[in-house]
Amino acid sequence: LHLATQMLNTIPYDTIDFDYMNLNQSAHGDREYAFINARLRLNNKIIFGHWADETVQAQIGKWMSVAAAYNESYKIKIVTFADKMRNVAVTDGDKIEAQIKFGWTVDYWGVGDLVAYVNAVDDAAVDQLYVDLQDKYDYVVGQNTPEKFEHNVKYQLREYLGLKQFMDEKGYSGFTTNFEDLVGLEQLPGLAVQLLMAEGYGFAGEGDWKTAALTRLLKIMANNEATVFMEDYTLDLRPGHEAILGSHMLEVDPTIASDKPRVEVHPLGIGGKDDPARLVFTGRTGDALDVTLADYGDEFKLISYDVVGNKPESETPFLPVAKQLWTPKSGLKQGVEAWLSVGGGHHTTLTFAIDSEQLADLAALFGVTYVDIK
Asked: How many helices (H) and strands (E) does the chain have?
């Protein structure tokens, strides 16, 4: 960071002389320093203004969050418990190039390795967590028997504790699963993923390690505030209602919840496993940024557009998942056409805590192309 500033915020007209000028020539020195950085092609950030100004301090604070995320990027380790969903191109990528460019380590472990950890979780720990979570979330038995509800919720908590122990022991800060590869697990992890993401772990579905790492990276930058794994699902194309309904099968985390999340158990039409427990809630309103990372084969591109987050216009009684509505600020038609034209994926990180200036700074530090759709 190059902070171009000076000690005083004024010119002392009544007393100024050349001694003062010689000792207070930041305007001169900053230009020399800036030229050196420019000549060296350094990806530095320049902020100009008085050091005591609150706006300047806020700019510095935003950049410091970017710098912290950049440094921590080289410690990100993602564990993939399955490969990408079959025949999907956009979630694929070059793990070696990602390690070179971003510092990410991506390892494969078999689902059986995870199953061993899940099965070894202590029953007493599961029982205690089942009680503790009732202080934070509402338990809704719904159409289930009380016995089935408790069993299925506790199995998700067993998955949560198993995943957490696995990652913490082996130094992983994010992970990905795939509903096509669940051998040995009773349920696709849902509530388990949401609880881990709420703690700051990165995640993406269907073997998408790029978005899992991106989500972890942006959670670091956002101090884990209102930053979640997301997926574009379905559209409202009516004039005056244009919006994207975002969600995922089970795994959007509650850092964007506008209401008290509910723990519910419902069937899932894919995966062929038992009905998974999940947190059900509605997202929030406000300015946000939707971000994805694309691997073009010869380069990575960080892609985003500014969006306005909204709540769904009506309840969705037959869609018991976490959900978020948003509309690109450039307009749904223009925004989506631009997104598609640069190959933006359906898996994203949605954040209400980061802005496009910070993303541009981050891309500059990594030396990757940033596509800011306006």
From this structure: 11, 16
